[in-house]
Specification:
The structure is a homodimer of 715-residue chains.
Chain A: E1 13-17, H1 26-36, E2 42-46, E3 52-53, E4 56-57, E5 71-74, H2 81-89, E6 95-98, H3 108-124, E7 127-129, E8 136-138, E9 143-145, E10 153-160, H4 163-176, E11 181-186, H5 195-203, E12 210-215, H6 221-231, E13 238-241, H7 255-259, H8 263-272, E14 276-277, H9 284-293, E15 301-306, H10 309-321, E16 325-326, H11 331-340, E17 351-352, H12 363-373, E18 379-384, H13 389-392, H14 397-415, E19 419-423, H15 431-438, E20 443-444, H16 447-468, H17 480-491, H18 499-508, E21 517-519, H19 525-532, E22 537-542, E23 555-559, H20 561-579, E24 587-592, E25 598-607, E26 611-618, H21 621-624, E27 629-633, H22 638-646, H23 665-681, E28 685-695, E29 700-702, E30 705-709
Parallel strand pairs in A: 1-2, 1-5, 5-6, 6-7, 10-11, 10-12, 12-13, 13-14, 15-16, 15-17, 15-18, 18-19, 19-20
Antiparallel strand pairs in A: 3-4, 8-9, 8-11, 21-24, 22-23, 22-24, 25-26, 25-28, 26-27, 28-29, 28-30
Helix pairs in contact in A: 2-3, 5-6, 9-16, 10-16, 11-12, 12-14, 14-15, 17-18, 19-20
Chain lengths: 715, 715
Amino acid sequence: MTSKLFSFLAPKTIAVVGASKDPSKRGYQAIARLLNDDFDGLIYPVNPREPEILGLRAYAHVSALPGDVDLAFICTPASSLPAVLADCARKHARGAIVLAAGFSEAGEPGRALEARAMAIARKHGIRVIGPNTNGVLNMHRRMNLVGLSDVERGSIGVVSQSGNVMLALAAEAKRKGAVGFSTYIGVGNQADVEFHEYLLHLSEDPDTAVPVFYVEGFKAGRAFLDAAAKVTPSKPVVVYKSGRTESGKRSASSHTGSLAAGFNLTRDLLRQSGVIVVSESDKILSVAEALARMPLPRGSRVGVLADSGGHGTIMADALEDAGMSLAELSAGTVAELRSILPSAASILNPIDVAGATDNDPGVFASCARALLADENVSILVIAGMFGGYAARFTQSFLDVEVETSRAISALARTYDKPVLVQSVYMPLKPAPLMELLKGTIPVFIWAETAATCVAELVRLAQARARLAKGPRRILLQQQSSAAAIIACAQDEGREALLEPESRELLVAYGIDVPSHYLMQSSEDADAAVFSLAAPSFAMKIVSPDVLHKSEAGGVELRVRGVDGVRKGYEAIVGRVRSDYSEARIEGVMVAPMAKPGVEVIIGVIRDPVFGPVIMFGIGGVFVEILKDVSFRAIPVNRDDVVEMIDQIEGNAILNGARGMPPVDREALIDLLLAVSDVIQLHQEIRELDLNPVILHDRGYTIVDSRIIVGKDGCD
Amino acid sequence: MTSKLFSFLAPKTIAVVGASKDPSKRGYQAIARLLNDDFDGLIYPVNPREPEILGLRAYAHVSALPGDVDLAFICTPASSLPAVLADCARKHARGAIVLAAGFSEAGEPGRALEARAMAIARKHGIRVIGPNTNGVLNMHRRMNLVGLSDVERGSIGVVSQSGNVMLALAAEAKRKGAVGFSTYIGVGNQADVEFHEYLLHLSEDPDTAVPVFYVEGFKAGRAFLDAAAKVTPSKPVVVYKSGRTESGKRSASSHTGSLAAGFNLTRDLLRQSGVIVVSESDKILSVAEALARMPLPRGSRVGVLADSGGHGTIMADALEDAGMSLAELSAGTVAELRSILPSAASILNPIDVAGATDNDPGVFASCARALLADENVSILVIAGMFGGYAARFTQSFLDVEVETSRAISALARTYDKPVLVQSVYMPLKPAPLMELLKGTIPVFIWAETAATCVAELVRLAQARARLAKGPRRILLQQQSSAAAIIACAQDEGREALLEPESRELLVAYGIDVPSHYLMQSSEDADAAVFSLAAPSFAMKIVSPDVLHKSEAGGVELRVRGVDGVRKGYEAIVGRVRSDYSEARIEGVMVAPMAKPGVEVIIGVIRDPVFGPVIMFGIGGVFVEILKDVSFRAIPVNRDDVVEMIDQIEGNAILNGARGMPPVDREALIDLLLAVSDVIQLHQEIRELDLNPVILHDRGYTIVDSRIIVGKDGCD
């Protein structure tokens, strides 16, 4: 391991503080394990009452050690931590792993203790893992400071908020065989080192092919997103986010705020950064294994080769459930498969060999070659009973099958396409399947697992293509007129911009806002109608004291002609004055009624964990009933925006459902990008709601805009 | 086995036709296996060229046997089948299992051969399993006619269209331990016995607790639904329906027809009959096992007891994903758990014991008692590492853990509530978990599997409550006026009723249809407006030759006043005449414009597999974009209808979203029930579309109705 970030995780010297002669204590177990595993470095037991532990000379204090230490493994009680860390500093410790509980997770006194200890650590440049961690494991350095036994060595690095989840993953890897771990880090309270730093650390660890995170909650979510966007283009990253069902309570002062809660937001933002988000605990290791083994596909169409109609169909079902589509085979492939397989075989994808492999399992390789050579096939899945022919029929098949495995592995390399195998016989670990696992080909018992892996491989390939385009350069320049609008509201102690102000701000950035007229008296009706020249109008009160305009009677719709506008003015002002006698009325805004089209919602919040986030949804039931909205961290690039539109379940409505023409998608994309730019340019904008925006076949109409600013340059 | 239906599946005498001395032949393997397994009955090898096979006297023909046979196991080539069956009849065979392929699955000559053979079988009362089956297995009679080895004996009965799927299930059961099979039947081509008959057979089989079906396609789907509705109240039935992704092509002449395709329809109808539909192949056996072991819950709220915060949270996530909710614990339970557990424990469901079990695994039982005694907890799930304490800590825990298992089993019996355990240690099959499996408690490795089982237990309990209410009695009486309308259309060779006819038919059954006026000339405008007395009207052409009224210019909406109606008539008739000069015009129907409300769609089709099916959907995007519709087989009872409404994703809109009052749900329920009645009373009605129906806060308006009848008393 050559990680520059945390070299103390590959230490040459470890001080075990709280070393013990009692085999039930972690301070004994750690030393015993290091000795047993032939740890390649110096171990210093630290215990003020013992001269010697497990044959090693023990020291009363860290400061009594004969030399410096890289890493302190601290097993002493919570209250001792400040003193121990100060003592470690004298020997230039660069890192500490702190097991004790009783810190910030245990109420106020613990919080104070944690803060005190961390201040000392920071002062001396000691990075702390934990407290309240169950430890750290580095398989490639034979450093097992966690007490897990029976962990297979491999290339998956686990960072977890639960030690028992690692225990489950280790047990699963043991059962599967041929998959294992490079490292495990229990993050504990994350009082110092946090998830994003572990991610950067593992990104530099050559022993780790796939970092896997079990996350109950992010503290610095934005930092994780930024780190992930750097790492995922070259190394796959897997996250299982638990606690999805707790209804994450966040700011609900805006419509966007009320929708921007919970797992969907986290999932969208992680995926934006190229992270593979796994939602089922039984698929974490399989997905990590698939990502570790295989090349990424160059397309998304799957070929399925089965030696059982049943398993082929089940695989097709599972792939469809995972959002994948089967490849349509080229004529040449169909012809070649026909020449290989008997007439009873089904050559339509999924391919059913119809018993052709029963006499010669080598037929799998011939069929695999034909399918992999097909340009329409980006991924090959072999489903059914491969690997079990010797067990099913005759032991003499074993050599043929192993040969076939080698041939399939070679084909996967030649064509540089992912090949996955699902076999009923995997639990028996027969030689042909073990042979596949030596190469790049993962083997799964269940169709559903294989299908999830296929879907995530495709997703990562797509994310990399998107990330490769880099963050989009802000096209807009900060406009002094916009800054002045915000400053004016702040000066007046207002958080919500008046709607004419919001519109002016958007217009300053070239966002298309329909012209409006601000009436100051009913006498302005003539001028309003003349200047706007529309068949009918929407009228809205403009007042810093009226937040909910409709409820206050401050809105009139479909108003026609000068007379209508005059009466509309009087009606609105009359109602508002009677209900809110103190309200400052800036006037009544008149704008042309929008043409019909598809209503959408665009919103921005500043999430406490992830920072500025843009939301998109289609109005009506999609947002109101189905909560069908998508999120992206700002800044977004064009691909992000296209994906966030396509992700909405009802996005087909944008293509012209219900007798309407297709909407102007390009204009929508430009609008979302411009909003992202505006938020980047104005850190003071806390929330923004464009709700609704009506999309037309050409352009859009922003019907209502609402911008909330911090009282003083917030965020 | 005492099944009256197919006693030949527990035969006393078996003739193996095509018996062989070649160990690679099924005619050898079957006899060898029967002998090896100590089959308790007579085995007659039948082979014209061998005097003796495997030590048994062989006979040249079945008719040469010394006595009658119960079952003929036929391994001879396809072409021999008619003669063999005729020969079997002479010895009064009651059943035959036919292995050979080359029948209806193999094109026209095979189809003819199959028909010929089946005619002979029917004539002689021989029931046939297959052809093209891989055989039958009866574990409790030691009758293995399928060649699968290593099958665990148990209470799950599998009926499958794929032999290899059974192979996968058998392998899974072997791995799990403590779960096994009563029987396996490969259905082959189902030329004679079909799925519903196997279901009735297994319902009578005392050795089978849970019949499991792997179905690629139903032939007599309605018969299966009827059988299932009889069986599921007393025996759980599981179906995995494969080939879900093929877009089942059905009649698409109606809007309903175009939506009524594929897996969703099948799934809805199976569930209506109480069938448990499993969608993931890796959950089939687990769900069957859970159903076989446990009592059904009396409610749907789950208590989760975990010895790891991570696993508790993962279980909560998985339960939520499966549509389940966690129980809110009563104050007494919280107090009791507080007295048992340390202060660090989380007493909010999911319960995290926070290490309390590390020193005494018996704490699991005390907590389980508290949770099971809570009325708010209908189901208990124990998650994490139970069963692994001896392995994790000290072997001396083993006895405590086994005792705890016994205590938990006893508690489950005492409180008669389902208890499920998820344990990381299950693959090691430790004694405490094996002890649980001796009782009624299933153990799973994965949270997702346990959560699916919980959801399906709840679903079955709910289905039983619904089915217990019995089929609803038809409340309506056949109306001669309705029959006359249909007969009139049939006499005139029309399939589509004219809209006034459709309305009259519905009115005859007390269905609320808005009054209308049929104008014969523009002179009728006065009378129409006078008689309908509404502020505005919808006008539609009535012509047997105009099917698509809007496209033909045959519709005018929001028409006002006598003058408007007169002009509307002229405009409609003018447009239709100019485009369809030959069209017979019966007049123009005028009806009041409907009040606003929530648009829904009610449709009926006669599905070729499942018979009459009613569909419900909410108009707009739910149907058009999301295809969010629900199906039920007719007849429906009130609970069916309530469930089919609640099943729609957007059903919240009925409760008064977007500022509207809640709709009149009772009126909607009555309408759906009345439609079901009408379809039962009139077998001639092939399709019915009420689209849209607008639901109001009181009552509804059927805006458009379309009824298609068979040319002559079809169906």
